[in-house]
Design brief:
Strand content: 15-25%
Shape: globular
Number of helices: 6
Distance between the termini: 46 Å
Structural class: alpha+beta
Number of strands: 16
Number of domains: 2
Amino acid sequence: MVVRFGAAAAALCILLTGCARKHRDGVHLHLDETYPQKLSEWGLFTGNGPNLKPNDRVIPYDVNTPLFVDYASKLRTVWIPPGQRARYRPVGAFEFPVGTIFSKTFYYTWPDGRERLIETRLLVHMSNGWVGLPYVWNDEQTDAILEIAAEPLPMRWTNKAGRTFQFDYVVPNVNQCRVCHDSPDGAAPLGPTARNLNREFSYSGGAENQLVHWAKVGYLQGAPAPDHAPRLPVWDDARTGTLAERARAYLEVNCAGCHSEHGRGAKSGLLLTAVETNPAKLGVCKAPMEPARAGGARFDIVPGRPQDSALVLRMESTDPESRMPDLGRSLAHEEAVRLISQWIREMAGNCRQEPVDH
């Protein structure tokens, strides 16, 4: 899948109104109207299938540690209306203007190079807040169709190592988009934070730090130099952080959307942001909220014993009633389970006979 292209900042300023508006870069912005039934109506891409490319001023980007979705690869893009900029924040997602469109296209690549686009999720900053829209690619790979509540897609995929996975790929419905992207101020982006964007990306003109590039093309204001911005480790790259730092990075991206102070998992008492310092809130010797769904484990984390830790057992599970995260996956992320297990295995301490209540 081609994701590189040259992006030039445009000087055109617009008034954001409630009608659809086509911009000089080809993007068709829809704010307060019926959502387009076809992805192509947004004008975010040219080509289709393996030749899918971002349109002018639609900027591709990547993150340090991504969300796991059944081993799917992802093409991420952002578009911001001309004359508008995001405001930098050191913590949490940047402040993006009305009209901002994020896209994330999920696809699989076979060892012989064949590709299949599965879905493209849009997160659009409408006049009344952020809205998530799932588009499912047709069999011909010519366009993706808006599916408010899509049926599971049977998948049979072989990875580079020759291992075949057979599973149902689940496209989140609109309500599930709201669940994951919930915040005290309403729905909001999760991935585009300083911590996760502070990395290089290979653009057509060469590799450049994303924070620097976004500022250069007029998409971001107020960002410090990359060395003075926070940076999340890459979960599977030991050069970027310690075992504990990489384990915590993975948990933050894949679990803390719910398991944070304002997430829907807050009532469990398990808080998995990378900056949490209270061992009990991280789950160490803490009773799980639903032990029956955690294989009967008495503690979320048992230092030195990942096999007895509810956190690991629920990451390993593929049972919809037991697995965590409970949305967005059908398969277990085996490599991440090994990472978290090793982190717990090297953790010092002993649990009391009775768990710490949440």
